[in-house]
């Protein structure tokens, strides 16, 4: 598949992308740990098949010093021993919040309770916003066939 459209090279697309990126500052500047932000972003992107976003978040995790084992096991986190309870709660929320369209009941009460056990109000708000925003970002990239492979860590500042 070849890329269909360079969204940011169009005036409307560029305006949208700028505003979309600005909304992420609330998440990035929150107290939600950066590694949690990245593993959640990676898991949502894996589920949605977004090569561009998988490329971004695997490289950002590596640049932040995460091990290859942890990065590679995000896809199978339920069957791994390398994620703590708080990370598992965030990954469960990411999966359940992403799979809503798969006839899933949404986020379970057990998952919500685990999230609330480990994250304060601000972190919970950031986590919910992150799952929603990553799903949107994945859909934008998948629709236009934006390819992974060219991202450099820190590219977006």
UniProtKB/TrEMBL annotation:
Pfam families: CMD. InterPro entries: AhpD-like, AhpD_core, CMD-like. Gene3D superfamilies: AhpD-like. It comes from the Bacteria. GO terms for molecular function: peroxiredoxin activity. Residues 16-96 form the Carboxymuconolactone decarboxylase-like domain. NCBIfam families: ahpD_dom. This is Carboxymuconolactone decarboxylase family protein.
